Amino acid sequence: MGRVGKEPDFGVPEYSMCDDGIREHTFHLGIQGAWATRVVVGRGALGGLPASWPADAARAFVIGDANVLGRFGSEVAGRLRRLGVDATLLPFAPGEASKTRRTWGRLIDRLDRLDADRQSVVVGLGGGVSTDLAGFVAATALRGLRGILLPTSLLAMADAALGGKVGLDTPGGKNRVGTMWWPLAVLADTSLLASLPSAEIRHGVAEMAKAALIGDPALLDLLADQAPGLAAGRPPSDEAIARAAAVKLDIVERDPLEGGERRVLNLGHTVAHAIEAASDWRVPHGAAVAVGLRVESRIAARVLGFPDEAARRLSGVLDGVGLPSSIPGCRYQDAAPFLVRDKKVQGGRLRFALPEAPGRMTRGDGGWTVAVGPEIVEACWHGTD
Ligand SMILES: NC(=O)c1ccc[n+]([C@@H]2O[C@H](COP(=O)([O-])OP(=O)(O)OC[C@H]3O[C@@H](n4cnc5c(N)ncnc54)[C@H](O)[C@@H]3O)[C@@H](O)[C@H]2O)c1
Ligand SMILES: [Zn+2]
């Protein structure tokens, strides 16, 4: 799909907080004027399905892991059928291990056998594995189908289903194959979080803490207030989830293709990805992000004057939620070989996306990252906060 011009022309984002507590963020991406995504976060957001459904689409293919389709598939299919849409559920085995070319190939073949056509719509239902995979199937089947994402995990509502990145893992690493693809709508119905396991709640909170540090310091206060409930596995408030989503959407709107500012969404992830790789992907992403945020906020304190008390405050909130401060057996020396494989490395030098202050990320020399020497990373790896 051709992209014209370097600087896409964005429309004005619209935010509204409805009386029923649903926060709606509508954004229009100006790439050839072709992409516009409506994002709704809140209890009952699934009720937005009719308003988001394209009038010419009579067939829906609902792609999600078997866990999630077993739980919510018939509810979603029922809603589609009431719209007069023929809905087919296409489950795959739950887990990151399914986010592969093999599963993608099977789903593409199933769409072929079921005679999916250009008017068909892919509905991605589930956590980030489901929305990444369903999105990639939609982006590639018949050279690109329309889709709607219905995230069901906290991580997917606050992060993975937003922003247009879809893709797969390969033996070479996570998300090594993928593209940008924009769904018609993302409807994040927070009432679905009631059944999410408590560990998955905590992992989503790590990404929300990241969003707070990047662009909404008051969100960290909300998470601090809610920490006892979060530690017990209760979902955050709709307000908190919508605010985390808004931080990401604002940035993606300004820089959808990651030419610069979007790199700030990598906060905590330079360290997190190295921890995950060093553990051979046994450490859950959210746990690695929690450690990454702590280490990188200490690095920011060293190199950018990020306030020490803000780094301690972040750590206190993560502690309160039950997120780890370090990973046993993962010392700096264990992770260092994986740090240098980071996508932001330039000329062999490590680069980090770092905050100057809570809610304000550094622009660096214009590329939104700063070079940091390994001795500083090592010194900040094991903190005392
Ligand atoms: N595209 C992006 O921008 C982006 C950003 C961040 C993460 N990701 C990707 O997201 C993935 C991780 O997402 P995840 O943590 O949601 O994992 P996941 O999709 O595997 O979901 C975690 C588990 O929770 C279950 N689940 C989901 N919703 C549920 C619910 N409401 N009730 C009960 N169980 C439920 C799932 O079946 C699964 O077992 C990774 O593959 C990561 O690469 C993508
Ligand atoms: Zn992440």
The CATH topology annotation of the largest domain reads as Dehydroquinate synthase-like, alpha domain
Query: Counting H and I runs of at least 4 residues, what is the number of helices?
Result: 13
Uncertain residue segments: 1-21
Q: Describe the global form.
A: globular
What's the structural domain tally? 2
Q: Whole-number average pLDDT?
A: 90
Structural class: alpha/beta
Percentage of helical residues?
A: 40-55%
Gyration radius, in Å: 20 Å
CATH class of the largest domain: Mainly Alpha
CATH H level of the largest domain: which superfamily?
Dehydroquinate synthase-like - alpha domain
How would the blueprint of this fold be written?
Elements: E1 14-17, E2 23-29, E3 35-42, H1 49-52, E4 59-65, H2 66-82, E5 86-92, H3 101-113, E6 121-126, H4 128-140, E7 146-151, H5 154-160, E8 165-170, E9 173-180, E10 185-189, H6 198-215, H7 217-231, H8 238-254, H9 269-278, H10 285-304, H11 308-321, H12 332-339, E11 351-352, E12 355-357, E13 360-361, E14 370-371, H13 374-381
Parallel strand pairs: 3-10, 4-5, 4-6, 6-7, 7-10
Antiparallel strand pairs: 1-2, 2-3, 8-9, 11-14, 12-13
Bound molecules: nicotinamide-adenine-dinucleotide and zinc ion.
